[in-house]
Design goal:
Chain lengths: 402, 382
């Protein structure tokens, strides 16, 4: 048992840190660190810079661009990427659909989709949730009816993140309405410019436009776009949802935010001294740091033990990463809100804000503008990807044996 | 970065767990040891000696096994599971830590072999009534006699296993004001020396402690373990190692208490079904699990950082661990009793004993709030 990083691991970290800090534009990294929205071009730019260095899909098999790293190297990569404000390579491509195609797709499908996916030549989005299928995902109703050499898709998806940028969608559709609900689902992929697709934005309470409703009206999907077996799409879905074990804690981003909280609170005055010297405030910050350190160590334990695990059974401790990771993220956004105090009030709409958008110069302090929206927006992290209550159900069943 | 135990460490863990399963499997066995004259079982203490546990942290040149804090963590976690009452923390970790870090070669060579054989127990007499968690706060005085010796005067309280220890390590102020950092000397005295009065008593968690009065206790130069220039630093190091060990002990106790609770939920029936079928109880037991795993992570962190030579970095890490341990212990302990219902309240059931030990671990060497304050004042973790 040796809980320190080796010299090689530290060298690996230094190399990545230097790359992230010198090659990814500071304007993009600053935006991430300050909690501002990136536009599509910025996300693609950053992704392509990483891709040129082989840093978008290190977790994929080597033949498809993977890096053959140790679990600790993967951990260091994720932490450095996040801590330095580098946007995560598009998760719909690299962490969600890519691994499903690698695990369930045909050689033909791999060749067709994976290289463009890794390079972000195609932007992918996720068609899972529906208005009537949230936590009970298998209750989804969107249908795909086989007609000769294609399926006809009808129905509606919702919470589709960044669908407005997407070229392709991976989609769970019901192909056998008579089967038990998990057994009649298929995993289809198709272009977002297919006739019959309508995308409608859902504006979240912070004013952001991250998510959308996507409607399908007789959308024709060629049968060769079926991933895995027909009616066995639930296997793909379960695989996809269980895949992301460590990145989900987002330790690096939280570390970065804690550092930012401390910097800002050292500048913001509360009475005749900086807020950071207020005992109650700094104890709250310290409490979050303790939680975060525990989370980081838990994540390392999960990684370290993964080497010995046969098959695909995750370490029981991995199941708490989502719960604690989301709690810590939310705690940091609440602290940032507290730092801003009254300066958090002015609402600075994006240019495309339908209600309040204008070309007037912004009100208030630059750093304070995204703080309250960030706090509001981050309520999502304990809801998406299986709400924290669903996570507790999973732990109760899979770990505690209820 | 490697969390795996070596083969030797795994062997240590297995054999200790076997020994404890035999001797602590039934709560009545523990009650029996508590009623023995020393408040613990000297026979089990001898078995620890035979297993090599008592020599773990001491250097080989002094007669020890020269092992590290990881071994101490393994042992402490097993003790936590078993709710062991022997003075391992008092003798080997705490007093042993002071001996090691004081670095008095003659004393180490003389005492360590007896400790390792199980023939000598020690206690650290440092805590004073007014000091609360301030390790520097020492009113007991050591007056130099001009010939290299001292006269000790003062009152110590809640000296862990101080009632049965053969020797005491006493902290006393050679110079300076009551809570000044400098000026504290460390003295090794015979527990039965002239002028030493001990009043022993059981503690809430089934262990033993003593209040110790020192009145005109005269010691020679050979009793000086560390001079006033480094006394506090030695105490701090030993206490940091003790906190790391206590963290592991708490993890053992929490894990066992959590298992006990989940088993209970699966077997206890009300309304015609096991109460574990109710989601509200399942989620509470998941919250216990989360608190336990976060505590385990911080016990590892404490073990790793207890050896850190940079005192500031070490203290911050240890404080962070103690915050997590204290908070997790409270949540796990209180929830366990609640989920058990009435049976959890009884003396004859094990849950309450885990809860009491966990609560006292929080109180030992600074509770969660104390360490949060210390950590925050030091600028936090990053």
């Amino acid at each position: 048992m040796d809980l320190r990083f080796s010299a090689e691991e530290n060298a690996f970290r230094d190399k990545l840190r230097t790359f992230f800090r010198t090659k990814v534009p500071a304007s993009i990294r600053d935006k991430v660190n300050e909690g501002r929205h990136l536009d599509k071009e910025e996300m693609v730019t950053s992704h392509k810079i990483l891709h040129a260095e082989g840093l978008t899909v290190p977790h994929w098999p080597k033949e498809w661009g993977g890096a053959d790293w140790t679990p600790v190297q993967h951990y260091i990569y994720t932490e450095e990427l996040q801590f330095n404000g580098v946007p995560q390579p598009l998760p719909f491509n690299v962490s969600m659909c890519g691994p499903v195609i690698i695990a369930f797709g045909t050689e033909e499908q791999k060749k067709r989709f994976l290289p463009r996916m890794a390079a972000l030549d195609d932007w992918w989005c996720q068609g899972f949730s529906e208005p009537g299928a949230g936590s009970d995902l298998a209750g989804l109703k969107t249908t795909a009816v086989r007609k000769g050499d294609h399926y006809v898709v009808n129905g509606q998806k919702t919470w589709t993140t960044l669908a407005q940028y997407a070229d392709w969608i991976f989609c769970l559709c019901r192909t056998d309405p008579s089967a038990k609900k998990q057994l009649g689902i298929s995993f289809l992929v198709f272009p977002m410019n297919s006739p019959g697709i309508t995308v409608r934005p859902i504006v979240t309470m912070d004013g952001g436009r991250e998510v959308n409703e996507v409607f399908f009206d007789d959308v024709k999907v060629p049968v060769e776009n079926l991933i895995g077996q027909e009616h066995r799409g639930w296997d793909c879905a379960k695989f996809l949802l269980g895949n992301e074990r460590t990145g989900i804690a987002r330790v690096g981003y939280s570390k970065q935010r804690v550092q930012r909280i401390k910097e800002l609170a050292s500048r913001v005055m509360a009475g005749d001294r900086p807020l950071m010297e207020d005992e109650r405030f700094r104890e709250k910050v310290a409490a979050v740091e303790v939680d975060l350190k525990a989370l980081e160590m838990t994540q390392m334990r999960v990684l370290s033990e993964e080497r010995h695990r046969k098959g695909n059974t995750p370490n029981p401790a991995s199941s708490i990463l989502k719960i604690k990771g989301s709690e810590v993220q939310q705690a940091t956004t609440a602290l940032l809100l507290e730092v801003a105090g009254p300066l958090a009030l002015p609402y600075q709409p994006d240019e495309d804000d339908v209600q309040f958008g204008s070309n007037e110069p912004p009100v208030g302090l630059d750093w304070a503008a995204p703080v309250a929206p960030g706090y509001f927006n981050y309520r999502k992290v304990s809801i998406y990807g299986g709400s924290n209550e669903i996570q507790r159900n999973i732990i109760a069943k899979a770990v505690l044996g209820f | 970065m490697d969390f795996d135990l070596s083969d030797e460490q795994r062997q240590l863990k297995d054999s200790l767990e076997r020994l404890l399963a035999d001797n602590y499997g039934d709560l009545n066995q523990r009650m029996g040891y508590m009623k023995e004259q020393k408040g613990y079982s000297p026979a089990i203490w001898q078995q620890y000696a035979e297993l090599g546990l008592l020599g773990v942290p001491f250097a080989e040149e002094h007669g020890g096994l020269g092992q590290g804090l990881t071994e101490t963590m393994i042992i402490a976690e097993a003790f936590g599971r078993a709710l062991a009452v022997e003075p391992y923390l008092a003798t080997v970790v705490l007093a042993g830590g002071v001996l090691r870090h004081a670095g008095n070669e003659a004393v180490l060579k003389e005492l360590v072999p007896s400790i390792v054989e199980g023939k000598l127990t020690l206690a650290l007499a440092h805590q004073e009534r007014q000091a609360r968690y301030d390790l520097a706060d020492t009113a007991t005085t050591a007056r130099a006699d001009g010939k290299g010796g001292y006269t000790l005067e003062g009152d110590k309280c809640v000296v862990l296993h101080g009632d049965t220890a053969d020797k005491l390590i006493v902290t006393a102020r050679v110079s300076g004001a009551r809570n000044e950092r400098g000026g504290i000397g460390l003295f090794l005295i015979d527990a039965k020396a002239n002028g030493v009065t001990r009043r022993g008593y059981p503690t809430q968690d089934g262990m033993r402690a003593a209040d110790v009065t020192l009145s005109a206790v005269r010691v020679g130069p050979e009793a000086v373990l560390a001079g006033p220039e480094k006394g506090l630093a030695v105490i701090e190091r030993a206490v940091d190692e003790a906190i790391a060990a206590l963290s592991a002990e708490a993890v053992g106790a929490m894990a066992a208490l959590h298992e006990l609770t989940v088993d209970y939920l699966k077997t206890r029936k009300q309304f015609g079904v096991p109460i574990g079928s109710f989601q509200v109880l399942q989620h509470k037991s998941v919250d216990m699990f989360t608190a336990l795993e976060q505590a385990r992570s911080m016990a590892y962190y404490a073990t790793m950082m207890a050896a850190e030579p940079d005192a500031d970095e070490r203290r911050k890490a240890i404080s962070a661990a103690k915050v997590q341990i204290g908070r997790s212990a409270r949540l796990v302990g209180e929830t366990a009793i609640q989920l058990h219902g009435g049976i959890g309240m009884t003396m004859e059931y094990k849950a309450g004993h885990y809860f009491k030990r966990l609560t006292m671990i929080d109180m030992a060497f600074g509770d969660a709030d104390h360490h949060l304050r210390v950590l925050a004042k030091a600028g936090g973790l990053s």
